[in-house]
Amino acid sequence: MTITFYDIPSKLAVKGWSPNPWKARLALNIKGLPYKTVWVEFPDIERMCKEIGAKPTGTTQSGTPLYTLPVIRDDTNNAVISDSFEIARYLDDQYPDTIPMFPKGSHALQAAFKEAHERVALAHFYPLMGLTTVRQMNAPSENYFRTKKGPPSGATFEEADLKGEARDEQWTKVREGHEIIAGWLSKNEGGQFVMGENVSFADTMLVAWLRMIGVMYGEESDEWKAVLSWQDGWWARYLKLFDQYLAVV
Fold this sequence. Notes:
The chain has two domains: about 5-95, Glutaredoxin (3-Layer(aba) Sandwich), CATH 3.40.30.10; about 105-240, Glutathione S-transferase Yfyf (Class Pi), Chain A, domain 2. The protein contains nine helices and six strands; from the N terminus they run βαβαββββααααααα. The protein has helices at about 20-30, 45-50, 85-95, 105-135, 140-150, 155-160, 165-185, 200-215, 220-240; strands at about 5, 35-40, 60, 65, 70-75, 80. The strands form two sheets. The protein has a four-stranded mixed sheet with strand order 2-1-5-6, with helices on one face. A two-stranded antiparallel ribbon has the order 3-4. The longest helix has 29 residues, at about 105-135. The chain is globular and about 50 Å long. The mean pLDDT is about 95.
């Protein structure tokens, strides 16, 4: 079996920061499937995707095809799959003897969870991401983001960065969103995963975005320490369940 996994590098010592690729990487690691990582800078993503036959995952505001990572190439089946959700579904279909990311009957509920996670938590985190994220990129990706993907207002990332009370209020919204999600999960009769005792793709959504905070801000940062203290350490205990799946190969 030869699976190639395409991800975005950074200047950080800890490899792997982007949450969408992390969802797919977690699926590969949880399933125990061997793979190798190829690192692709942002300005090279479209060219690479076209070269290997990866499908676009959407369209830009101008209506042109949008190419994003993660992407996997599975030479065993001569397949190239884009988008973390579709990658996880593909891995379930092609490698049924591994831990399923979408246990039977859960596709609709997990799709709904994806939308709910976006609404109650991620929507509040996005305004905090820009400057911190772009500063961690290698020069080619940083330049691409600053010239092609700047804030919609036309301001620089530095100008758009939230400060002071506005920043504190935004973090409060992120915390409150995760408090709602922790409340959902605490209603399970057993187990701490989204589906109770069984890990699923929904868990990779939570872990990938939380891990981004730890990687981008740093393990010793006030931001990460705050996350680990939320809901009396609920998320710290939850994330501990995934220590064995965080390898970057």
